[in-house]
Design brief:
CATH class of the largest domain: Alpha Beta
Radius of gyration: 21 Å
Number of strands: 10
Structural class: alpha+beta
Strand content: 15-25%
Strand order of the largest sheet: 3-4-6-5
Largest sheet: 4 strands, antiparallel
Helix content: 40-55%
Shape: globular
CATH superfamily of the largest domain: NADH Oxidase
């Protein structure tokens, strides 16, 4: 695909700017403050797409891409390319934006594309377009994820569309004082299973959450012990403010650290080593994720190796996450187990020690073989809209 045929759409275009740098002097040291975004959380060009996501009159189909690029995606890698024509939009996988050994079979990349596709179709309906969708329309080009043919139609706005700028991934501790109703879980399941190729399984009892939590921790430990996977896992972190504003992708300190004082310290002190980052992730997974989740869920498709079904799974996750946003639910993808399973398969680790084998001993083997996505779910006492480039 040539540059003339495709337009790279990220979460905005790069704008050069200059600003003063404030320094804080303490204990004989000079620490950067303003240039690390300490006083500018949620500010700057990297965050503009979240504020200016609604279409401008007369833009045409490209206006739909504004909503598409706000979709959930693995490590905020934004692995998409859009080709926009007068009555058609083509979605392509940008395979150069993969996350390496964390996603060796591109499972998460195509799930991410499915999330963007769902946002795009919601935006089409809300802005007066009918659509005809074809997944993987070109058998000779697996990167050609979808083709959307557009026609004029009556506008139909939904609460899912309106939730697009408010949806974000909640990585902090959840409110353990508020239970998730069984009716809510059932409604989420039905929403995910609107596509007959998709199934949703819940693990909500104490025993079920404990079993899933143990495996999440084991998988997280295995990833941090694998140098290649650890490096790739941290490769999309954007802990430098200038780097964040330049690339407009990746994960920031603001999505990992909610406490203001800890966040301040993390920004002004030297960046942590890989080992320190891994230990922080392990601790957060143990205490904040496994320790406070009200339920875990598996989103499964009939063939997890088939890219079209991964796209379907991504669309389902985006629908579920958007609807959860309207209820004030906190949700977070937790793909450590599938990431470790894929890594072991890629590395040729014998089956008896694989994650698929161990996982199958504890859960339905059919759900394990089909798993595309694992996630945590809980309520927050108050819904907080995160101010960060990644949501």
């Amino acid at each position: 695909m040539s540059d003339k045929k495709a337009r790279r759409i990220a979460r905005g275009t790069f704008l050069k700017g200059a600003g003063a740098t404030l320094v804080l002097v303490a204990g004989g040291g000079v620490w950067r403050v303003a240039d690390q975004g300490v006083f500018g959380v949620g500010e700057g060009p990297a965050y503009e797409p979240w504020k200016n996501w609604r279409p401008n009159e007369g833009e045409g189909p490209i206006e739909l891409v504004r909503a598409a690029v706000l979709a959930a995606n693995a490590h905020n890698s934004q692995p998409w390319l859009f080709r926009v024509e007068e009555s058609r939009i083509d979605l392509f996988a940008d395979r150069e934006r993969n996350i390496g050994t964390v996603d060796p079979y591109l499972r998460e990349m195509y799930m991410s594309l499915g999330c963007a596709l769902e946002n795009l179709l919601l935006a089409a309906e809300a802005n007066g377009y009918g659509h005809e969708l074809a997944l993987l329309p070109d058998s000779s080009n697996p990167a050609h994820a979808a083709r959307i043919d557009l026609t004029p139609a009556a506008a139909s706005t939904t609460e899912l569309y309106e939730a697009i700028p408010d949806r974000h991934t909640n990585r902090g501790p959840y409110d353990t004082g508020r239970a998730i109703l069984r009716e809510t879980l059932e409604a989420l399941r039905e929403l995910g299973e609107e596509d007959p190729e998709v199934s949703v399984f819940w693990f909500a009892t104490d025993a079920e959450r404990r079993r899933v939590g143990d495996l999440i921790l084991e998988a997280t430990e295995a990833i941090t012990a694998d140098e290649e996977q650890s490096v790739d896992n941290l490769g999309w972190n954007r802990f430098d403010w200038d780097e964040l504003q330049r690339y407009r992708d990746g994960l920031t300190l603001d999505v990992f650290i909610a406490d203001p004082l800890t966040n301040f310290a993390a920004k002004v002190l030297p960046p942590p080593s890989r080992e320190q980052s891994d230990q922080s992730w392990l601790r957060s997974t143990r205490e904040d994720v496994v320790g406070t989740a009200a339920a875990f869920g598996i989103l499964a498709v009939n063939d997890k190796w088939e890219d079209a079904q991964r796209l379907r799974g991504g669309r389902a996750w985006q629908r579920m996450h958007l609807w959860g946003t309207t209820l004030g639910l906190a949700m977070q993808p937790l793909n450590q187990m599938t990431e470790r399973a894929d890594r072991e398969a890629q590395s040729g680790i014998p089956h008896p020690s694989s994650w698929i084998s161990r996982w199958s001993l504890r859960f339905s083997s059919s759900s394990v073989r089909r798993t595309a996505h694992l996630f945590a779910l809980a309520c927050r006492a108050t819904f907080v809209r995160a101010s960060c480039a990644m949501r």
